[in-house]
Amino acid sequence: MHILIIGGTGFIGSWVVRQLIGDGHVVAVFHRGHTTADLPPAVSHIDGDRNNLSAFASGFTQFAPDVVLDMFPYTERDAALVMQTFRGVAGRVVAVSSMDVYRAYGRFSRFEEGPPDLQPFTEEAPLRSKLYPYRASAQQPSDLAYNYEKILVEKEVMSDTELPGTVLRLPQVYGPGDPQRRLFEFLKRMSDARPIILLEEGRAQWRWTRGYVENVAAAIALAVTNDRATGHTYNVGEKEAFTELEWVERIGKTVSWTGTIKVIPRFMLPAHLVLPYDWAHHLAGDTSRIRRDLAYEESVSVEEALRRTVAWERAQPPKQIEPSHFDYAAEDSACAKSQDNRITGANAGGRHSASQHSGQTDK
Ligand SMILES: NC(=O)c1ccc[n+]([C@@H]2O[C@H](COP(=O)([O-])OP(=O)(O)OC[C@H]3O[C@@H](n4cnc5c(N)ncnc54)[C@H](OP(=O)(O)O)[C@@H]3O)[C@@H](O)[C@H]2O)c1
Questions:
Q1: pTM of the full predicted structure?
Q2: What tens digit of pLDDT does each residue of 139-188 get?
Q3: Is CATH 1.10.10.10 correct for 2-358?
Q4: What is the distance in A from the centroid of ligand 1 to the CA of 68?
Q5: Under DSSP, is residue 120 helix (H, G, I), strand (E, B) or coil?
Q6: CA-to-CA dists, residue 132 to 83, 155, 304, angstroms
Q7: Which atom of ligand 1 is nearest to the CA of 150?
Q8: Taking a C-beta distance cutoff of 8 angstroms, is the pair 170, 332 a contact?
């Protein structure tokens, strides 16, 4: 197949490109040329800015894509431009979305209010009723966060009468090259041989669907190359949404950390560890539809995924670290003050009923 990728040199996109080329497809990436990735030489590059997408129409027509994969449609305008540009040029558009479209996310991030939704959520679960979840963090209307809204992106892609679409709702993605370095806050403490890692009670039992980047890329490649995905929306992610406590334990096991995870109430947390979220709202996505329709399954186990991610983190540590995020004196003091070191089974959830967990021996 001829596949045109908008983006394709970023964290997730570069893995998708390598997967598609490995599967024998003809791939072109459209990007500005600011971000480079180690891509196979067979990949063609079309240099340009997506804000000016229609100016590249003749190059796109020449490439004749069967499918256009949009790796980063962030705004309604982004998606509208893509649909407009590729009507009559491509056979289908696959848009990468996010699980932040769900109402559960809106409530978790305190962007909107209400009781917890059913978990895990399927693709039919309620979406947020309020739009533009990151607008408050934008400095000015030209900032990406101002108009970011995947709900509107999805609407554009799925409502076109001439050009069919597919939507992929991604989870928290981790792996080598992760610009958000999702493991770092724990890994650094483990590398520093910290005897304790503090976790807030609510956070310890909070579940979040994750996906290892190579597996997520394989799921995206499947949705691009399999026509059965036409007209469908899919949650993508690991089958099991681990609690944060289970996740930190797994990281600890990967690096043979011998310290203890201490679960304490919010009011006892040092200020630098207090997060603004409502942990009552889990973000666990049901991924059975993509497994059933497209026979998706992970080829890299969670254990191996963590090993690869840790190896990358160690080989390429961040250039800058904010010292106030690692105020160990405050953590030691909070630990010493937490006299009652047990929480109830109901609060902790399942077998994680005690407040202290050995990073090395619990699994
Ligand atoms: N990471 C997560 O945990 C997570 C979770 C949920 C959803 N997602 C979704 O995953 C996607 C991100 O994928 P990714 O990690 O591969 O992307 P990325 O790392 O953000 O890379 C962005 C790509 O787009 C290109 N690009 C940026 N601005 C451009 C412009 N104006 N015109 C043309 N090209 C431009 C970049 O190349 P140039 O700089 O060379 O232009 C690069 O190839 C997003 O849709 C995001 O919402 C991610």
A1: 0.94
A2: 999 999 999 999 999 999 999 999 999 999 999 999 999 999 999 999 99
A3: no
A4: 15
A5: coil
A6: 21, 14, 36
A7: 47
A8: no
